[in-house]
Design brief:
7-stranded mixed beta sheet; 14 helices; alpha+beta; 3 domains; Chloramphenicol Acetyltransferase; globular
Length: 499
């Protein structure tokens, strides 16, 4: 918006208002200008966000005094009035991600909340303006150090956009103004996409819920500050920035990383990182009851479905199929960190020995309990630290080719599929009434053709299959297995992003 347009909008805002209300608006924007110390274009852009906010509320018939209360500049704090140059070292999981990227692949994931009403973009943008300051590492940009990448805080504007592109599209991290997350909206859906260097699914969920709470506040709703929602005006806590990998205890062995190469689901790899997304919406209680009847957890049951589907979609009849299952380490010690704090293990089955769910679920459940135990995960963290320490004094320009080679061998080639379960997500009062469902999308890493995620909220479980090939056989097999088990599900799929 140009200066003359901005002045016209402000005058239009005051048209027909009382002298008192006009004075409130003038005073608000005078104070706003004094609270922003950003480059000229960014300062004007942030001012435009507030002008559009006033326009929205006035059209809705909201009193000016109430508007000033909703948009109170305390929600901006001093974030846009200072030049932030604080740096943060990457956590041990995050260190690997920028080193291992190649061929246009980037470890991205998306968390989405579907609301009961259409999203108001103007209010979502203001909610983002108010929320981002509470997450200093999320507002940071990635920089190249001599030995490692690191995060440098930035108070440049984060913009929400209408969703028009393929989900989890790689973000350019070369330009200094580019953050490692993006906020999107589409009809009733609000999505946040993260470069995994920032956080894991649990940390990302805290950001999404806090953003939603601020958005709903601007909509006139009251949301309790609980169940993972942070107060945007509260000071950042040290416990939220901890690299918990440094606190791991136990033995380490490089053999922890070593696993046999996994078979891959058939189908030609698409050129893009995602070809299609399919959501299966099911009753969470029924799924849990069914899993227990087989002698396992929900994760064990869904993993078993993935094994069964894989067998039907792989021509080879011998060899291992590995499903990588991340483990949220916070469940062991109650950590509040917003950094990456998840480890992983592979549940493995010889493809020739996959027969039926009755025998498979207890087997996978036992693997989850053994391999995903606190002891084994701590060992994995110790091993990660050992690998990183061994490369500490290798210059970054030499680390990149080394880690690309190691990451390619020890990473995706030993994985046939990933199953990441966010578990039962609790929402605070005032939010649960506004959210229909939450879904989780994670882009497959090559050469993987499929990956899968689980998220449950308000009694609804969403299983998402993300495909990176032109073959729909895998999700069809999952659907048939669910139907055979008497699980009713609503299936929602994206378009084919690449035919």
């Amino acid at each position: 918006m140009r200066k003359d347009q901005r002045d016209l909008h402000l005058e239009k805002l005051k048209g027909g208002l009382s002298e008192k209300d006009s004075g409130l608006i003038d005073g608000f924007f005078k104070k706003l200008r004094g609270q922003i110390d950003l480059p000229f274009i960014s300062k004007n852009l942030l001012t435009d966000h507030f002008i559009k906010g006033f326009e929205y509320y006035i059209e809705e018939g909201t009193e000016v005094e109430k508007i000033c209360e909703l948009l109170d500049l305390k929600y901006l704090g001093s974030f846009y009035d200072e030049v932030h140059r604080e740096s943060y070292t990457l956590d041990n999981a995050a260190i690997v991600y920028p080193l291992g990227m190649k061929y246009g692949q980037m470890p991205m994931f998306r968390l989405s909340a579907e609301l009961k009403e259409e999203v108001e973009p103007v209010l979502l943008q203001l909610a983002l303006d108010f929320t981002i300051k509470r997450f200093p590492t999320f507002s940071a940009v990635i920089k190249n150090g001599f030995f490692w990448h690191y995060l440098e805080s930035s108070n440049t504007l984060a913009l929400c956009e209408e969703e028009k592109d393929i989900p989890c599209k790689p973000i350019s991290i070369i330009l200094r103004s580019y953050r490692s997350l993006r906020v999107l909206y589409y009809k009733r859906r609000i999505s946040v996409e993260f470069f995994h260097v920032l956080t894991d699914g649990s940390g990302g969920m805290v950001f999404l819920k806090t953003l939603l709470a601020e958005y709903l506040r601007l909509k006139g709703k009251t949301v309790a500050i609980e169940d993972g929602v942070l107060d945007v005006n509260e000071e950042v806590k040290d416990e939220e920035l901890v690299n918990e990998f440094k606190n791991a205890k136990g033995d380490s062995s490089f053999s922890t990383f070593v696993d046999k190469k996994s078979l891959q689901v058939d189908g030609k790899l698409s050129k893009s990182n995602i070809s299609r997304i399919i959501h299966f919406e099911m009753d969470a209680d029924k799924l849990n009851s069914l899993a227990k009847s087989y002698g396992g957890t929900l994760t064990a049951y869904i993993a078993s479905l993935l094994f069964m589907a894989a067998k039907s979609c792989i021509r080879k009849k011998e060899g291992l199929f590995n499903i990588q299952i991340p483990v949220n380490m916070r469940k062991f010690n109650g950590s509040k960190t917003l950094r990456n704090y998840s480890m992983y293990f592979n549940a493995s089955m010889d493809i020739s020995k996959i027969e039926d769910l009755k025998t498979l679920v207890p087997n996978i459940d036992a693997q989850i309990k053994e391999k995903g135990s606190e002891k084994m995960m701590n060992q994995m963290m110790m091993t990660t630290g050992k690998l990183i320490n061994s490369l500490s004094f290798v210059p970054l320009f030499l680390k990149v080719p080394i880690m690309q080679s190691v990451y390619g061998y020890l990473g995706n080639s030993i994985i046939g599929c990933t199953l990441s379960n966010l578990g039962r997500i609790s929402l605070p009062q005032g939010m649960k009434e506004e959210v229909e469902k939450i879904s989780f999308v994670m882009a497959p890493g090559r050469p993987n053709r499929v990956t899968s995620t689980l998220a449950s909220v308000n009694g609804k479980c969403v299983l998402t299959i993300i495909r990176c090939s032109n073959d729909p056989s895998f999700e069809k097999a999952i659907y048939e297995l669910l139907m055979k088990d008497g699980i009713e599900c609503e299936v929602e799929g994206s378009v084919e992003y690449e035919s």
